[in-house]
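FAQ: What does a multi-protein file look like?

Like this. Sequence, then tokens, then the next protein.
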Amino acid sequence: MAEHTSSSITIEAAPAVVMGVIADFARYPEWTGEVKEAEVLATDARGRAEQVRLVLDAGAIKDDHTLAYTWGDSEVSWTLVKSQMLRALDGMYLLSVVDGGTEVTYQLTVDVKIPMLGMIKRKAEKVIIDRALDGLKRRVESG
């Protein structure tokens, strides 16, 4: 089983507000840092994204890929559908109510088609996670 990288942050907002920002893919380029383009390709009966095309530039990892999303009450997870460079890009946001708001835990597993040291992959995962969590916090808390 592939190793994943995980990190958490507390955001001063209700889980529904945080999930609303996570679900707003059109605005990802404004706050994620690594996502340069986002396009929802398919939605479910509730209007939530099921497949999303993302153009990613995370330094060591640059790609144009499609992810499939699964939505729960307090989490959203995704798996890689297709990619130019990646073999896997699986992740999850898990939201928990805490004093002062919502704790958001982000897990990510990245595997690239080209040879890359595990240490470099973990560093890229950590950069992606930290920037995404910091961006999400700034986006939600700024309204």
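And here is the next protein:
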Amino acid sequence: MIASICGANMGDFIPDVLKLSDIGGLLMLALIFAVIVLANQRSRRGNEGLYWLAILVVRAAATNLADLGIHRTHLDYITVSACLAALLAAILALRRASSLQPVTCGLPRTNGLYWLAMLTAGTLGTVLGDGIGHMIHPITVGVPISAIIATVAVALILAQKTRLDMASAGTASYWVAMVAIRTWGTNFGDIAAFFLSLPASMMLSGLLLAGTLIVWREPSNPIVSAAT
């Protein structure tokens, strides 16, 4: 959830502060992702830090893709959301058909289809968060209401974690959680940027993510191979 806020702010930072176009920003993020993949392939077991860097880059790209899909194509939020949901379902069906099994710690295998699904889920979550927030006027009221809705959705999903086995690569609940968390991150990223400024919100959430990862260490579990 922290990574979702940071990634959402990063996605907005590229056009708003760096003044890069949507296409230019996506190309830059694609290059960064390729470097992360190369660095991971050169490591022996995969690196958890590289995984979270990849998550941030993919989350930022999802923000830019969502803006591109809405503003450049002039399609409405409902249409774009439906198309993205159908695309995500197709990607997950392809993953199931490929018979990929989860790794030993129960998390999905991070292959190309995983990252494509993560990008699609992030884009869908961004469109949903922005769509709900923009449909309720004024936007200063709509975004907090969208944030409340997303918070309730995330809480309900996490409350059912044990029963639904969200960590299982074969269940849709993992990806439903990803969409909900990306929606939540979009809303709270916007709120944090409004009160703190975009650079400050991105930096603070990045530091908070780094601190969380430093504290959250589980040596007994194998490291998930990231971006492979």
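Q: Is there any per-entry metadata?
A: Some entries carry free-text notes. For the entry above: The chain has one domain: 2-215.
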